[in-house]
Design brief:
Strand content: 15-25%
Helix content: 25-40%
Largest sheet: 8 strands, mixed
Distance between the termini: 35 Å
Order of helices and strands: EHEEHEHEHHEEEEHE
Structural class: alpha/beta
Radius of gyration: 16 Å
Oligomer: single chain
Number of helices: 6
Strand order of the largest sheet: 3-2-1-4-5-6-10-8
């Protein structure tokens, strides 16, 4: 069923894949972005709205009539190593705007490193991007406190690949989850939005295991 989706982070690696797949599936998409010139694609079902994701008023003006918000906002490579509250502030403005506009479905990309365990490799990366993870934890806390039908998707390290298949598990990371494609994450975000699944759940993601 065709839905009207508001997409945050549409110019990032995951966001561009969400945009591509959503249009291919027949959805109407509003890309809410700071820099509209970064989106060169034109499509009858695509609306590009310039705005600041930290502005409750601007988001609330763009949101009425949408069925869901998909957030793929993330820091740039350098920003991930510095103290920041960007994701927390974006989460706060998003949920406040959703409340004003009576939109109740939110699907957001988080990170697998927030799950416990994972051995030395995960421990190393947790230390490396500890500021980013601290911001993510706070952002998730803001979203979990709402009455909305939210889904928090936690993928492992993301890579560029055309692969769309994925595995998902509620409240834990699937075994062998070391990396997966931006496109597969986008497919999960759209699948759970379309199907109404994983409401008020944290979901671990992984690439589909290859057949022997």
């Amino acid at each position: 069923m065709t839905q009207r989706l508001l997409l945050l982070g549409a110019t990032g690696n995951t966001g561009t894949q969400v945009l591509d797949l959503a249009l291919a599936r027949g959805h109407q998409v509003t890309a809410f972005v700071r820099s509209p010139q970064k989106i060169t694609r034109r499509h009858p079902a695509l609306a590009i709205v310039q705005g600041d994701p930290l502005s409750v008023n601007q988001l609330a003006q763009a949101l009425p009539g949408h069925d869901a918000v998909l957030s793929a906002i993330g820091p740039s490579g350098r920003e991930a190593f510095r103290p920041s509250t960007l994701l927390t502030e974006c989460a706060a403005s998003t949920v406040a705007a959703m409340e004003r506009a009576s939109v109740h479905r939110l699907v957001m990309v988080s990170a697998a490193l927030l799950f416990p365990g994972g051995g030395l490799r995960f421990a190393f990366f947790r230390r490396l991007i500890r500021h980013h993870l601290r911001d993510l934890v706070a952002a998730e806390t803001v979203i979990r406190a709402t009455p909305f039908d939210w889904t928090l998707a936690r993928p492992p390290r993301l890579i560029s690949s055309p692969e769309e298949a994925y595995r998902s598990e509620r409240e834990r990371l699937p075994t062998g989850a070391w990396s997966m494609s931006f496109r597969a994450v986008a497919a999960f975000l759209l699948d759970c939005t379309e199907q109404g699944t994983h409401a008020r759940e944290v979901v671990g993601l992984a690439r589909r295991e290859q057949a022997a």
